[in-house]
Structures are given as C-alpha cells and as structure tokens.
Amino acid sequence: MKKGVVYRVAGPVAIAELDARMYDVVHVGDERLLGEVIQINGSRCTIQIYEDTTGLKPGAPVVNTGEPLSVELGPGMLSSIYDGIQRPLPELKKLMGDFILRGAAAPGLDRSRKWDFKPVVKKGDKVSSGSVIGEVNEGQVVHRVMVPPGNEGVVKEVRHGSFRVDEVVCVLDNGFELSLMHKWPVRKPRPTSSKLAPVEPLVTGLRVIDALFPIAKGGVAAIPGPFGSGKTITQQSLAKWCDADIIVYVGCGERGNEMTEVLTEFPELIDPRSGKPLLNRMVLIANTSNMPVAAREASIYCGMTMAEYYRDMGYNVAMMADSTSRWAEAMREISSRLEELPGEEGYPAYLSARLAEFYERSGRYVNINGSQGSVSVIGAVSPAGGDFSEPVTQGTLRVVKVFWALDAKLAQRRHFPAINWLNSYSLYLDALSSWFAANVVAGWREAVDSVMRILQEEEKLLEIVQLVGSDALPEREQVTIQVARLVREVVLQQNAFHEVDTYSEPKKTYAMIKAILRYGDLSYDALKSGVRVSDIISVRAKDRLAEVKFVRDYDGLLKGILGDIEAEFGKLGKRQEK
Ligand SMILES: Nc1ncnc2c1ncn2[C@@H]1O[C@H](COP(=O)(O)OP(=O)(O)O)[C@@H](O)[C@H]1O
Ligand SMILES: [Mg+2]
Question: In this predicted structure, what is the pLDDT of residue 575?
Fold first, then answer.
C-alpha cells in the first residue's frame, strides 16, 4: 500500500501528495475517511471524500488501497439497507448508535452468516466468465453463484455444504479460488453478450403508465416534477408493485424525514406476489442526510452494479433512483471544488455524458453466461420550480425512452398520479402492443388509442370552453367532454394509499377503459337518434364507474353498473319515442 500526505482540503475534496491511479480508493487521515482519486496532476492527486471532512488538515496521512471503488456481490444483499458506499446501515447503527462516526467500516456482506451452497458443476467441468457454479437460497430468491467476469478454467474441486461468503467453495485448475461473493468496481459496467430489443412491459399496476406510457423491461424512464408533485410516491408504488424479480431502490431524501420513512416503511411492506416481506427481493440504498455529497454520487453506481449482478443471474431487475438531481448536484459541487470550467447552470460540461453513461447500463441482455436478464431504470428528476428546460432534465430527456412529466397543477387539484397525459410519452408503445394483445386482450392497443384521442380532443375543446363557455359547444363535443372527464377521474386518477386502488392489473385497467368507451358509444348513438344531450349527460349510473377502482373482485360490480347504464339509456330512448 502506498502512503502519502494531505496538503489541501476544500469541503469534500482533498489534494494529496500520493502515488495513485485514477479512481483508486484511499483512506484519508487518522480516522481513515474513505475517498476516491478523481484527478491526477503530476505527483498530486485530488481525492473526493465520502465522509465529513471536518477537522481534516494538511499533513494528514493518506493510504492508497490500490483498488477501485467496488461493491461486494454475493448472497445477503437482498433485504439489506446500505448507505451510498455499501455500508450496511443497521450494522453501523449497532456499532455506533444513531450518528454514524467517520471512518466506520463494516463489510457490505455479513461475514458471520452461513449459506447452504448447492454446486451445479463438478470436477472436470469447464467454466468461464459468468458461469453459474452453484446456487444458494437467498430468501425466496435463487442466488446463482457465478464465476467473476474475466476468469475461466476447469473445475479442480468443488465443495457442497454450508459456507460463509468469503470461504472457498470451488477451485479451478489454474489455482483460482471462488467463494460465494466477488467484488466488482462500480464505475465499470458488468460485461454482457448482446443486447435484446424491448418486447415485454414492466407491468406497474399504475393505469396511466401501463396503458398510455408503458415502460419495457430493460427500459429507461424519467419522472421529472417539482417538489411535492409525486415523484417519491410514484417511485415507491413502482418499487412495491412492478413485476420485476428484484428491486434496487436508491433514495436520496429530498424532504426532511423522507429517508426515515423509507427505512421504517419499506421493511414492513408485503410483496403482493409472494405474501412475504417485499424487502426480501429488494436492495435499499439510502443516502442519509449526514452523508456528504460525494457518497451520493457513488450511490447510484453502487446500485447499478448490484442491479447488473442480479441481471447476470437471469433476473429482471428494476432500479429506482430518487432523485438523480441530487446526484447531479453532487457532481456540480465536486466539479466546482476542482475549479473546473463550469457549463450550464454551474453543472460540469460532462453532465450529459455522465447521465447517458449511467442510463446506458440499463437494457435487456443475453448475459455472458447465456442467460437473459434485464435492468430497467426509473430516475426521478427534480428541476427547481418545475422548469424542464434546466440541464439535468434536458440531459435526461436525451437518453430516456419514457417520460412521465409530473405536473404541479394536477397535483394541486389532487389529480394523482400527476402525470401530465399531454406532455408525457413512451417510445415503447408500439414495441409493447403485441405483448399486451397476446397476454392481456386483443383489443388493448385500440382501447389505448381511443383514450388518447379522447384526451387530446378534450384539450382542444377546453380551450374553446374557456373562450365561449361549455353551452356553446356542439352537442357531440359536450358528450366527449363527459367521456374525457370519466377517463381522467376513473382511469388516470389512482390513489396510491388505497389498498386496492394502489395496484390495477392490466386486465382491470382495460375493463374500466372499455366500460367508459361503452358509455361513450351509447351516448353518441342516443344523440344520433335524437335524445337531448342534457338527458345523456344526466345518466347517473356512469358516475358509479369510479367505484370499480376500490373493489378487488370488480367483475360483478362493473357488469352491474354497465347494465344500469344501458337500462337508463333504454329509458331515454323510450321517452323520445312518445
Ligand atoms: N399517487 C398518489 N396518490 C395519492 N397521493 C399522492 C400520490 N402521489 C403523490 N401524492 C401526494 O403528494 C404528496 C407529495 O408527493 P411526493 O412523492 O413526496 O412528491 P415529490 O417526491 O415529487 O416531492 C404526497 O405526500 C401525497 O400526499
Ligand atoms: Mg421526493
């Protein structure tokens, strides 16, 4: 290990006389604060430090570990709660109480716990990068132990039984020893064999997303929105309900006690699919407010590396980052300490390149071991004042394929999720249509297109209404306004806090859309046959369609309401005939 000495400190950045390579991890000062070399100038290097640098001064010793910032990958990650550099928060808390002391060290994976390892290879088998050598049950998830990328050989010995993560379970002919865990540098994407096209949706149970703006497994989405518009609630809904096998949730805590809420609430959530704790298939990374900015910057790379690791096992992983703006701000702060030439709004010139690099690690792949897996990424963005023209939103827009634009006005009107249906888009809509047709219902896309058409028409009509009032609208358009209102209130609005409404399976979403379209058809037909528009609008049963949201076995209720709607229309017809 090479040693050096600090000669300048500026906030989270220190400059030291040290022999190092880019991205070497170093320990700074007597407290052994964790840092990373981010710039080298002759014999001097700049170090970003992941912990509070109060009290650090010139002359302090620096030790170079010679290794890049890495995470430990192996059984025990699921249901863990980590800080931005994979230190287990509950462990740290046990070690030192509520205030995490500086220089605290606890390994990412528990060294005392034993796991039952069942090998799937035998002596003489040839293995290579990513080959699965055996399995461990990590809660209800089968954890596949893989040869770390870049290694290969012939199995000389393989053991069966109960092991700690760092015990040798397999030896190759070249002497390489494998244990249940291996390390991987967080800034280096794990290798893959080939990229696959997105064909399957990440089903979220949010009607506005699944129907209008779907995301593919392996897809990338951004949720930009001002403070209080619902970014965190949406991210949490997705984490709870989306049909990924594994969830990696990276939280940055924008509101005061938001991270505390996550830390107390998430461990209590029950996975709707297994009936077991949701945390069993989740890795939670929490950037607590007492961690400095540099750790935030590292946290999303740690999260991504963990996501890629489970992808390599053949799983569909979804990663949520809330909020990427906090990460970009960390980049800005570090950059200004480095006295780099600032770009737009003080962000470094490489902001969009970094955003792109990060999002590009997502995707659906054939892994190097031949299995298929995906990493979907959903990043929240919090532009100040909701101004989407700022650099982080713009940089994100350039790389994501789905954009769920949150709207402060909708949030104020308590229209949740406040996803603006006119500004949002999904470039996966076409690619995913055949999946919905084959797996949900043949008429899916047609229904979705009808909904979109109605909403767009409503927008135009509302402009006219603003100018001349609703009575001036032609009768047909007055009906359209009614249908659109139902679409918004019944389909688009969804209460994340209601135990049934919080999740809507695509079949239910479709049934609700079809019911509204049916009301629309009956209305237009009645109008044609001479029924007065005021009578059509006063059909009362249609207003009960919203009740369907809150009922789990909705079939009977929906049929009943539709029957009542038809009966009311039947009576309207008769009155006209007299
Ligand atoms: N889907 C939803 N259903 C019900 N209420 C919601 C929903 N989304 C947001 N809210 C309300 O809006 C508030 C702010 O949401 P939050 O996600 O914390 O905003 P942000 O993260 O954008 O600052 C929540 O506390 C909640 O009251
Ligand atoms: Mg938030």
Answer: 55
Q: Give me the chain's average pLDDT, please.
A: 92
Residue nearest to atom 11 of ligand 1 (CA): 230
Whether residue 210 sits in one domain with residue 152:
no
Among the three residues 375, 398, 428, which one is the final residue of a domain in this structure? 428
Q: What is the pLDDT of residue 288?
A: 72
Total tally of structural domains belonging to the chain: 4
| Index of the ligand 1 atom closest to the CA of residue 255 | 23
3-class secondary-structure state, position 246: strand
Indicate whether 162 and 309 sit together in one domain.
Answer: no
Query: Ligand 1 center to residue 206 CA distance, Å?
Result: 14
The beta strands (E) that lie in 305-350 are given as 316-322
159, 199: one domain: no
Give the residue, out of 233, 234, 257, 412, with the most ligand 1 atoms within 8 A of its beta carbon, to mutate for a pocket test: 233
Which atom of ligand 1 is found nearest the CA of 236? Answer: 17
H helices of 120-215, in order, are 207
Residue nearest to atom 15 of ligand 1 (CA): 230
Q: What is the CATH number of the domain that holds 199?
A: 3.40.50.300
| Vertex 575: Cα angle to 573 and 578 (nearest 5) | 110
Q: Strands across the sheet with 114-119, in order?
A: 141-146, 132-138, 114-119, 161-164
Provide the residue type at 528 as one letter.
Answer: K
Identify the CATH number of the domain in which residue 128 sits: 2.40.50.100
In a domain, 202, yes or no: yes
- Whether 249 maps to a domain, the answer reads yes
Note the pLDDT of residue 342.
85
Percent residues over pLDDT 90 in the chain: 74
How confident is the model at residue 96, as a pLDDT? 62
Q: What's the confidence (pLDDT) of residue 359?
A: 95
Ligand 1 atom nearest to 495, measured from its CA: 3
Written as six digits, the tokens of 63 are: 């030790």
DSSP 366-420: EETTS-EEEEEEEEEE--GGG-TTSHHHHHHHHH-SEE--B-HHHHHTT-SS-B-
